[in-house]
Design a protein that fits this description.
By secondary structure, the protein is of the alpha+beta class. The protein has 16 helices and 12 strands.
């Protein structure tokens, strides 16, 4: 038990010496660990043998001391691999060093006839651990060079033949046995490395098999011609077919005829262009021939690569594809398209209805307004009864009110549809304010309301649609006069700063409750929306103002206190910004006079 724990601790120590770049690969880590362990143990063994050599042979010569120091060099090579992770370079250095060490030791002990000659066969055998034919060829080459050097040295008489105390037969037996033991150790090491490699491959295959078998998406592998070489078990769930029936052209034959060009094009581009490609198509599920049902799927293709034997480059080995059922998302997409078409159809129907209403309502309203005005003015003679004049006036006012409502509805629909065209031109703000105040002054005086005008000096010309600006200002003024009782006041002001003009309408009327302020500006919404409210109107005036201001890149801001009055501020940019521009949001504070 103690010995087993010691071996595990030693293996853990050697594993800790593996360079970080090789720890992620089980097989590479095993090879690094075997190389480091064999070289460290070989160097330590040389240190252990040195005292025995001193006892047997006594004080070594200078050449013998050099040989023993050379035996410690594998420790330095192990440290090199541990620090750099350069496995091939370490094997090349080790092969050259090992061949040189054996050549030098054999030269000291008889040259080509030395008992250490069998160790030359170990040089390429140890290089086999690199799993690189270049390293093995290099090791065989340096071993052959060592043998040639020994033969040449013997022929020229340059062999330093020490006289060992043991007989040549015993030395030959020692050399053969030691080389055989070392070769056996290398064989065991190679076998362990191969076993780890097989375990790693088997574990990887098991993981991929479990992944493929339990994935809900179908995984397929295709060759360079697009034929299926492997299909996962999800094919049964997706298509109701055994995976084997999709091999070859089995999957292609289940693709809807209209979608086959897209399917083949995706596979071809993935393989030839080395690209990851996604494609959507329909696949036939298993079932009766007269009740074939197709499902929409999305297939994502990726090229597969295989390492070439003689280089680190990669070659394409086929295509791996992941296919999933997207029938539900396709159904949702179709439903969204249908809903969008219905909405567009409704929008077109609304536009057509409004266009018809414009013709069907405006034409008779103009007649009602015109003839009622003729009656109220008695252009073709006296009516006789005074009540007739009152009736004609009421018809005229009602017709004008209804025409204004129709115009507001049409303007609001155009704004919402993005079809309201504004024509920008520079104009004087003061003239616009004075014109609007003169138009509304009669209405204000008739109701007993003071209409005040305050235009700041030096306001620059405004680049905007003058007709739309006039409509906005008249709507806001009309609201202020409507919701202000007799004896009150309405103030119309104009201000300017560096980037905008503010048109401000303030009153001391009935005001608006705080909870109703967020609703203002929405179509058909008024602060008092009950059927028995005291003020008429469709609730479109402020929504039209808000929409027109937004078309200019501006805004409408309203501040109010219930029972104290309301302040409405129309902010228009001086530069004539587009609708997408962020309008500055400001509120002017108007003190009650």
């Amino acid at each position: 038990m103690v010995g087993h724990q010691s071996l595990r601790g030693l293996a853990a120590y050697f594993s800790s010496l593996v360079h970080w770049s090789a720890r992620g690969d089980v097989l590479a880590a095993a090879r690094h660990q075997s190389f480091i362990a064999s070289h460290l143990l070989g160097g330590l063994l040389a240190l252990c043998v040195f005292p025995v050599y001193l006892v047997v042979s006594g004080k070594p010569s200078l050449l013998g001391a050099v040989a023993f120091l050379w035996f410690l060099s594998p420790i330095a090579i192990a440290i090199f691999l541990s620090r750099t992770g350069k496995f091939a370079a370490a094997h090349l250095i080790s092969a050259a060093n090992f061949a040189g060490l054996v050549t030098y030791s054999a030269w000291l002990t008889g040259g080509i006839q030395s008992y250490l000659i069998p160790w030359m066969a170990i040089v390429p055998l140890e290089a086999a651990l690199a799993a690189d034919r270049r390293v093995v060829a290099w090791a065989a080459g340096v071993a052959a060079i060592g043998l040639v050097v020994l033969v040449a040295a013997g022929a020229l008489g340059y062999v330093a033949a020490d006289s060992p105390p043991l007989s040549p037969a015993l030395l030959g037996l020692f050399g053969a046995l030691s080389a055989t033991a070392y070769a056996a150790g290398l064989a065991v090491t190679i076998q362990l490395v191969h076993k780890r490699s097989e375990n790693a491959v088997r574990l990887g295959e098991e993981r991929y098999r479990l992944l493929a078998e339990n994935a809900t998406d179908m995984i397929t592998r295709h060759d360079e011609k697009g034929r299926v070489a492997f299909a996962s078990f999800a094919a049964q769930q997706l298509l109701g077919e055994a995976p084997g029936r999709l091999h070859g052209d089995g999957l292609f034959e289940r693709v809807h005829v209209a979608d086959r060009p897209a399917y083949l094009t995706a596979l071809s581009r993935c393989y030839i262009d080395n690209l990851s490609i996604a494609v959507e198509f329909r696949l036939r599920r298993a079932g009766p021939a007269d009740a074939a049902r197709y499902v929409w799927v999305e297939m994502r293709c990726r090229p597969m690569h295989a390492a070439q034997e003689r280089s680190d480059r990669f070659s394409r080995a086929g295509i791996v594809a992941v296919t999933r059922d997207i029938s539900d998302s396709k159904a949702q997409e179709a439903e969204l398209m249908r809903t969008r078409d219905e909405a567009e159809s409704s929008s077109r129907a609304k536009t057509l209805f409004l266009a018809n209403m414009s013709h069907e309502l405006r034409t008779p309203l103009n007649a009602v307004i015109g003839f009622s005005e003729i009656l109220s003015r008695e252009l073709f003679g006296a009516l006789g009864e005074a009540r007739y004049r009152d009736y004609a006036r009421l018809i005229h006012e009602s017709g004008e009110h209804l025409l204004n409502v129709v115009n507001d509805i049409l303007d609001m629909s155009k704004i919402e549809a993005g079809k309201f065209k504004i024509v920008k031109e520079p104009f004087d703000v003061a003239s616009l304010v004075n014109s609007c105040s003169e138009i509304m002054r009669h209405t204000a005086e008739k109701k007993g309301i003071a209409l005040l005008v305050d235009v700041a000096p030096g306001i620059p010309e405004l680049l905007a649609d003058k007709r739309a600006c006039k409509q906005m200002l008249l709507n806001v003024l009309s609201n202020a006069i409507k919701f202000t009782d007799a004896g009150g006041w309405v103030r119309l002001s104009a201000r300017a700063d560096t980037d905008s003009v503010q048109l401000i309408v303030a009153d001391n009327g009935i005001g608006i409750a705080e909870q109703d302020l967020p609703k203002l500006g929405n179509p058909f919404v008024q602060a008092d929306n009950s059927y028995d409210r005291s003020y008429d109107g469709a609730g479109l005036g402020l929504s039209v103002v808000k929409g027109l201001a937004r078309l200019h890149g501006g805004s409408l801001e309203i501040a109010s206190t219930l029972g104290q009055g309301t302040t409405a501020c129309i902010v228009l940019p001086l530069e004539g910004a587009s609708e997408s521009a962020e309008a500055p949001r400001r509120m002017a504070t108007v003190s009650a006079a």
